[in-house]
Structure formats: structure tokens, C-alpha cells
Amino acid sequence: MTSASRLLLLSLVAVLSFGAPAMAQNKAPKMNKQERIHLRNGNQLYEKKRYAEAEAEYKKALQANPASEKAQFNLASAFMRQGSATASKDDKNNPMNQAEELLTNLAKNASDKQLRGKACYDLGNIAYSRQQYDQAIEYYKHALRCNPDDDQARQNLRLAQLKKQQQDKNKNKNKDKNQDKNQDKNQDKNKDQNQDKNKDQNKDKQDQNKDKQDQNKDNQNQDQQQNKDKQQQQQGGMSQENAEQVLKAMQDRERATQQRINAQQAQQQRHERRRTNKKW
């Protein structure tokens, strides 16, 4: 096994070692009898992995002394053993989120420097489990500032830094991959656009040629008709224009005749009405 592999194995063990409960000390200030009893009972249950029962004892210790930092830390440890670091942070029923809230308060406000360091270490482990390596690195650094001799915090810091490097490398790799994909997509898009443009140009050219052909055909037909009319005139026949004039003249004569007939009929009807209305 290489030295790097040994470091990785040791660090993994360290990461999985969430904080053990803080033991009650005789020198602890402001620790009353009930607090000490429940802390001791909770620690015994914790060692037996009866975390829910240990949680209940630590809560009783907090009831005896709400300001007890050891009871808060031990309760957070019991919560962590029962919760999941990968669960949603919005899940209020997840014990891990309750543990994180207690530890964050201790990391900022605990009067015991060693206890602040342990709280930061556990917060680092939670962040590491969520693959939030930036946060994990900062928490491990805070833990080492409080407890410079904390070898587990030092090992986990190194592991988090390696994980962060790998994470950044993967992000850059994916970014380059996406850029190449977008570039290929843009090239395909430009190719399709050029093809559509050429297709439109060819269609326009075909339409222009068709229009030109139609115009030539119309010109040919017009020339043929003119030649035909000219031939008819030369042969003594009647051109289309002359035929239309003759037809119009006939229609005018017919219309005039009909108007005279209508006038005669109207005059006759007037005479009939006058004769009918004459008194006898």
C-alpha cells in the first residue's frame, strides 16, 4: 500500500468518526448534581450505541442546566448518530440538521476552546459528507486553531483539500466538454443555416427562371396573335378588333330598337287608361 493510499484510508476513518460525547469533568464549572448524573447516564448509553436513549438523557441534563455546553455537544453527537448528512437541509425532522444547529452555536459561542474545536471538527465532517469541501476545509482549519494537536482534524483537512482539487478538476473537465458540445452544436447550426440559405437561393433562382420563361411564352403568344390578325387583314378577313366593333354596333342597334318598342307600348297603355277612365 502506497503512502498516499495509507493517508486516504486513515482520513476516511477519521471522517467517519463523528464526535464522541464530551465526558463530564470534576473541574467543570457550574455543573450541578442532576446535570452530572444525566451526562454520565447518557455517555454510558452512547457507548452502547443506544443513541435515542442517550439523547433523552442529554436533554434531561439540559433541563437541569440549559447553559451546559457539554450537554449541548453530547446531544449533537447523539443526533448525528441518528441522522443523515445527505438528507435535505430543509427537513426539520432530520436529526443531523438539529445537530448542525447545536454545533454551529457551540463553534461560535462556547467558552471552552477545546469544545469549540470539537464542534468545528464535527461540522467539517458533516460538510465533507455532503461533498461541500470548501466548508469542510474551513471548519477543519478552525478546529486546528483551537486544538493544534488534533491529528484527525489535520488528516481530514488534507483529504478535503484533495477532494476539492479533484472536484475542481472534474468541473473544469465538464466545462470544457460542454464548451466543445456547444461549439459542435453551433457548427451544426451554422451548417444547417447555410444549407437553408443555399436552398432558398436556388429556389429564388428557379422562380426567376420560370418567370422569365412565362414572360417569353406570353410574348410569343402575343406575337403569334398579332401575326394571325395581320394575316386575316391581308386576306380580307376580319380581325378580332373589327369583329368586336361590329358586334358592339349590332348590340347598339338592337338596344335602340328595343327602346322604341318599349316607348310605343308605353304610349299605347296610356291611351288605354284614358279611354277606360272616361265617364259615361
Explain this structure.
The chain has 280 residues and is an all-alpha fold. The chain is 80% helix and 0% strand. It has nine helices and no strands. Helix 2 runs antiparallel to helix 3 (51-64), helix 4 (69-82) runs antiparallel to helix 5 (95-109) and helix 5 (95-109) packs antiparallel against helix 6. The longest helix has 84 residues, at 151-234.
Percent strand equals: under 5%
How many beta-strand elements? 0
Helix percentage range? over 70%
Largest sheet data: none
Task: List the uncertain runs.
Answer: 1-16, 24-28
Mean pLDDT: 80
**Rg:** 52 Å
Give the distance, in angstroms, between the N- and C-terminal Cα atoms.
Answer: 150 Å
List SSEs in N-to-C order.
HHHHHHHHH
**What's the total helix number?**
9
Structural class: mainly alpha
Shape: elongated
Key words describing this protein structure:
single chain; 280 residues; mainly alpha; elongated; disordered N terminus
Brief overview:
The protein is mainly alpha-helical and 280 residues long. It has helices spanning 3-16, 33-47, 51-64, 69-82, 95-109, 113-129, 133-146, 151-234, 240-276.
